[in-house]
Every structure is written in structure tokens, then in C-alpha cells.
């Protein structure tokens, strides 16, 4: 039977010292030796037929390394049974002592899921921002921008007739358009897929209003999450903060790429190093993690769950076959289930929150 000594450290770090008697380790040793022996070639013997004592001598430290690699995680799982420790990162192993026929002793360091305390979330207040009406001027600006880009795409009349916007991107149109229009007109609107210029303005204004409503909902959800963060108490593990900083960095890289820049050029233009940027982000990263953990704790208290059928239904919505195939693995499914659970919890909070 293994012996264990568990020591808790600040920031949810847990050190587990584990001692394994040889009698518990020997079956793993023998099985690993048998498996590796099949690929060992020794002079004078057919492959896989050499005596185990010679094979063991030939393998040397490789055999021990393989045994430790395959057994230490299992012994750690056994040591954590019956405890409230739930690792949220990959363990780090440190060998203390081990030789064949003797006990194994090693230390595993893990980050435990932190204890989260959330105040009375049922009485928090969050204000929904006012929706700013979309003006005719804003709709007209979009039309003017479309018209300018469309005009640039069109060949001149001297190049042989008129080609509308849809034709320029490979989609035939039944509405030839005059190139002489100095301002958006009905013919231009038809090239954009509308019936008339008035119809185009109506459609654009409707799209702008839908976008405003969507962003307003995001702002409202952010206000709720800000209130959750205020009433959440947790000692934040460093690994979660680093994970959030990395997520923020990926987001920045995407924005920079959209501008046609490399990250190093962007940082040079800002006169900052990557470490300086991360240090500036750290307070926000801590708030984001606290917010995420607070929402997850509310989900636990409210018994919010996502069934296997609901998870699969979400996967089935994915159109890209390559992306969909990724969700055959367990880890992406776990992340998706968590995201759906967080979304459902936020929807629950929106019904609770008063203004």
C-alpha cells in the first residue's frame, strides 16, 4: 500500500510526497520490461527472444524512465482518492529515490482547483445600457462607403460596357449599371442586391440596428459579470492568470494581423516589450479569471448542467468537417461543455438580476 503526505501551499499549490513499496511497483516493472523486450535485439538471439536479465541490462535507465513515466501518474491518482483535491494543471514530478527491488519515492506538485466563495448573487444589480438609435446619417455613411468601393471596382465605359459589383466578384447580375452615376442611385442599389436605393437604406439601417442590439446585450452581460467579480473571493492560482494572459495575447495577435502587422512591429511601435504588455494586462487578467471562477461557482450552486445530448446537438451544428472532427476528442468536448454551462448560467443570472 502506498504512503502519502499532502502539503498545501499558497495559491492553491499542493505537494504530494508518495512512497510506493516495491511489491506494488514490481508488476508494472515486469510488464514494461516484457513490452520493451519485444523490440530489443541482442547478438546471438532472435529479436524478442533474449533472456530477460540480459534485456534488462541492455535497457538500463530507459526501462526505469519508462516505468516511472507510466506509473507515477497512476500512483498520484490513487494518492488523491478520498481527498478534495482536483488538479487543474499537469502535475510536475520530482524523483526523490528509487532503485529496483526497493521502494519508490517521488513528489508531485499540482495546482488544486481553488476554493471560490460567491456572495449573494441573487440580489446584485446591473444596468442595461441605453440603446442609441441608428440615425439616417449613419446608414447613409455606410451607403456612401459601399458606393466608393463599388466605383473603384468597376471598369470604365471605354473598357467595354458596364459590370456591376456582383459581377466584379464573380456573381452574374441581371442589372447592368451605368458607370456615370455621381452618387448612389437605384441602379447601384440593385447591384447591391436591393430593389431600390430606399430599400437598400432600409436594409442597411436594419442591419446596423441589429448590430447595436447585439453589442448592447454584450455590454449588459459584461455589467452582470462585473458585479459577479465584485462578490467573488478566491486566491487566484498563477497558472490560471498565465492562461488568461496567453488568451489575451492570442487576441492581440489576431487584431494586429488584421492590421497587416507582425506582433514585434506592433510592440516596437508602442515602445513596449511583451513582458511590459503582460504586466499592464495582469490586473485585468485577474479580474477575468475571478469573473470566470465566480460564474462557474454559481453554476455549481444552481446545479446548472449540460447533458450529453445537448453537447452533441451543439457539435452537430458545426459545418466545417475538419473542425467538427476535433470534437471527437475528449478535451475539446470538455471545453465546449464548460462554455455552454457558463452561457446558460449567465442567462439564468439575467433573469435574476434587477436593474
Automatic annotation (TrEMBL):
Its EC number is 5.2.1.8. Keywords: Chaperone, Isomerase, Rotamase. The keyword Protease does not apply. It catalyses: [protein]-peptidylproline (omega=180) = [protein]-peptidylproline (omega=0). One of its GO terms (molecular function) is ribosome binding. GO terms for cellular component: cytoplasm. Residues 196-350 form the Trigger factor C-terminal domain. Gene3D superfamilies: Trigger factor ribosome-binding domain (3.30.70.1050), Trigger factor, C-terminal domain (1.10.3120.10). Residues 157-181 are annotated as: Disordered. It is found in: Cytoplasm. The keyword Zinc-finger does not apply. Its main location: cytoplasm. Residues 3-146 form the Trigger factor ribosome-binding bacterial domain. Pfam families: Trigger_C (PF05698), Trigger_N (PF05697). Residues 157-178 have a biased composition (Polar residues). It comes from the Bacteria. GO terms for biological process: 'de novo' cotranslational protein folding; protein transport; protein unfolding. Belongs to the FKBP-type PPIase family. Tig subfamily. This is Trigger factor. It comes from Candidatus Daviesbacteria bacterium RIFCSPHIGHO2_02_FULL_39_12.
Amino acid at each position: 500500500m502506498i504512503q502519502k503526505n499532502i502539503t498545501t501551499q499558497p495559491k492553491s499549490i499542493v505537494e504530494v510526497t508518495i512512497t510506493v513499496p516495491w511489491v506494488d511497483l514490481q508488476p508494472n516493472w515486469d510488464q514494461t520490461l516484457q513490452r520493451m523486450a519485444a523490440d530489443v535485439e541482442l547478438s546471438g538471439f532472435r529479436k524478442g527472444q533474449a533472456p530477460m536479465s540480459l534485456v534488462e541490462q541492455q535497457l538500463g535507465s530507459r526501462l526505469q524512465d519508462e516505468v516511472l513515466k507510466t506509473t507515477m501518474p497512476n500512483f498520484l491518482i490513487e494518492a488523491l482518492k478520498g481527498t478534495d483535491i482536483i488538479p487543474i494543471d499537469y502535475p510536475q514530478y520530482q524523483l526523490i529515490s528509487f532503485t529496483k527491488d526497493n521502494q519508490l519515492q517521488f513528489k508531485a506538485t499540482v495546482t488544486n482547483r481553488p476554493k471560490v466563495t460567491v456572495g449573494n448573487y441573487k440580489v446584485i444589480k446591473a444596468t442595461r445600457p441605453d440603446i442609441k438609435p441608428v440615425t439616417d446619417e449613419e446608414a447613409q455613411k455606410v451607403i456612401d462607403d459601399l458606393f466608393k468601393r463599388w466605383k473603384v471596382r468597376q471598369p470604365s465605359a471605354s473598357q467595354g460596357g458596364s459590370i456591376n459589383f456582383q459581377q466584379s466578384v464573380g456573381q452574374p447580375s441581371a442589372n447592368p449599371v451605368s458607370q456615370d452615376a455621381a452618387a448612389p442611385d437605384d441602379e447601384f442599389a440593385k447591384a447591391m442586391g436591393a430593389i431600390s436605393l430606399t430599400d437598400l437604406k432600409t436594409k442597411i439601417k436594419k442591419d446596423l440596428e441589429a448590430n447595436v442590439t447585439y453589442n448592447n446585450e454584450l455590454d449588459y452581460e459584461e455589467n452582470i459579470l462585473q458585479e459577479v467579480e465584485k462578490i467573488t473571493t478566491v486566491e487566484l492560482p498563477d497558472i490560471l492568470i498565465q492562461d488568461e494572459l496567453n488568451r489575451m495575447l492570442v487576441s492581440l495577435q489576431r487584431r494586429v494581423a488584421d492590421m497587416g502587422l507582425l506582433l514585434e512591429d506592433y510592440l516596437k511601435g508602442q515602445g513596449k516589450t511583451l513582458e511590459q504588455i503582460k504586466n499592464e494586462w495582469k490586473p485585468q487578467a485577474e479580474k477575468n479569471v475571478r469573473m470566470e471562477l465566480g460564474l462557474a461557482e454559481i453554476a455549481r450552486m444552481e446545479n446548472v448542467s449540460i447533458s450529453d445530448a445537448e453537447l452533441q446537438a451543439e457539435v452537430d451544428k458545426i459545418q466545417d468537417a475538419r473542425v467538427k472532427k476535433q470534437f471527437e476528442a475528449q478535451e475539446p468536448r470538455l471545453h465546449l461543455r464548460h462554455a455552454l454551462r457558463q452561457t446558460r448560467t449567465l442567462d439564468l443570472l439575467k433573469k435574476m438580476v434587477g436593474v
